[in-house]
Amino acid sequence: MEKTRETFGSRFAVIMAMAGSAIGLGNIWRFPYMVGQYGGAAFIIVYIACSFLLALPIFLSETIIGRRSRTNTFGAMEKLAPGTSWKWLGLLTVISPVIILSYYSVVGGWSVEYLFKSLSFEFTDTDAGSIQSLFGTFISSTWEPLITHTLFMLMVAGIILAGVKSGIERFTKITMPVLFVLIVVMMIYAISLPGSGAGVSYLLKPDFSKLTMSAVAAAMGQAFFSLSLGVGTILTYASYVKKDENIFASSIGTAVSDILFALLAGFAIMPAVFASGVEPGAGPGLVFQTLPFIFNKMGTAMPVVSSLVSIIFFVTILVAALTSAISMMEVGVSYLVDNKGMSRLWATVTVTVFAWAVGILCSLSFGPLSEVKILGNSIFDFLDKMCSNFLMAFGGLLFTLFVGWKMDEASVRDEFTNGGTKKRNSRWFKTVYFLIKYVAPVAIVLIFVTNLIIS
Ligand code: PHE
Question: pTM for this structure?
Fold first, then answer.
């Protein structure tokens, strides 16, 4: 298995694939509405702190386990802690990304629909009043969102089928740099809008009075979600990383690009939120409700330019969503191939059908199934909360405990410093190990308990 396992070709490819997983709907769709719901700049400060102090240690733990074992989450636990029950916990992290994929694909489908709408000039041809209700009508209908969910799922499966090098690596290496350019263009455009100042200062002036305990918990959840943590995704990608790659450098590279992208997306979206008069705390529909309004206003004067900008924007969301969704699917596929001996084709079909079927329920929960509640939440909200607030935190805890307490320190050091050859990593090892062993687990437990109390 060691010899035939595919690897990413270069440092650049590793960062692009990992950043591709990290940067996604979490940055463009989830981050702005979280910022809106939890009080702007103060939330952002806590989110950045959580990213470095808690999320980065988990990221490194997953990378260390993945590259050392060179296999999927289940196999990794079995290999590094043979004969123990750790592998069953590893199996849990094979299941959670597939659940995330199911509802993620529904939102991915919304961006497919909005791309179609931009291509057919729908935002410029509709009157401003009905533009915001367009979103509600669309997501609550039965068939259209199901069709776009299916299309999105098929695109993901197509890339995964092509394999690690010619699918994941090739796709992310081309699309990720383009994505950065697109979001910068969008940001410059948004800041130049009349009335954008209120949005910009919302993101820059912290109001600490809004920083409740639940805001802190949400900031941590956002940091985990955004860096794809606790669900074996980073672990699985790390299993394709070459032995001579500097994992500390590529992890920092990934974390920094993820945070940067979230901030750029915030500056592209918040000005539009204020300019369109929508409440910043409007929730999951925020991006889909506010931007078309801007495109519409602009469209009366310049329909072609406006459609072009909206096409650019929804292509950005779609591509970002695809590069993340493939990383979720790869976790399950890699498990079925490594441990169940399935072919890549059958493994892909199995994961796709399962996630697609659960996704149907999530999509219908905005319409025909809106009355179905699980612990007071719709199916979609329940799965999102269960994953980002609990399963991800639990998985993150598991990985840090495994590296900090189960693996022996010498192997961790060996993996982190590439056998002592990376001098800078050796200097950082003590700090990183302390964060992994003590700081991250304690903080995760504290926030986990807080989530339990407040939800
Ligand atoms: N990090 C991705 C995003 O920000 C979401 C994700 C979660 C990807 C879990 C993989 C695993 O959109």
Answer: 0.90
- R_g of the chain, CA atoms, integer Å: 21
Nearest Cα residue to 120 out of 314, 297, 272: 314
Tell me if 21 CB under 6 Å of ligand 1: yes
Quick one: which H or E segment has residue 413? helix 409-416
Residue 262 CA: distances (Å) to CA of 29, 42, 199, 207, 277: 10, 15, 15, 19, 22
Q: Is residue 257 lining ligand 1, measured as CB closer than 6 Å?
A: no
- Ligand 1 atom closest to the CA of 24, numbered from 1: 12
CATH level 3 topology of 11-454: Amino acid/polyamine transporter I (1.20.1740)
Structure tokens at 41: 């700049």
Burial of 300 (0-12, 13-18, 19+ CB in 10 A): exposed
The neighbouring-strand residues paired with 374 are: 377
Q: With b meaning 16 or more CB within 10 Å and e meaning fewer, what string describes 96-126?
A: bbbbbbbbbbbbbbbbbbbbebbeebbbbeb
Note whether 258 and 226 are within 8 A (CB): yes
Task: Read off the pLDDT of residues 294-305 as tens digits, 9 standing for 90 and up.
Answer: 777 776 667 788
Q: In terms of residues, how long is the chain?
A: 455
For residue range 19-67, what is the model confidence (pLDDT) as tens digits?
999 999 999 888 998 898 888 899 999 999 999 999 999 999 999 999 9
Tens of pLDDT along 54-104? 999 999 999 999 999 998 888 899 899 998 988 888 888 888 999 999 999
Are 397 and 446 within 8 A, CB to CB? no
Terminal Cα distance for the chain, rounded: 44
Q: Give backbone dihedrals phi and psi of 220, rounded to 5 degrees, phi first.
A: -70, -45
Testing ligand 1's pocket by substitution, the residue of 93, 104, 110 carrying the most ligand atoms inside 8 A of its CB is 104
Which of ligand 1's atoms lies nearest the C-alpha of 29? 12
Q: What's the CA gap between 141 and 378, in Å, rounded?
A: 16
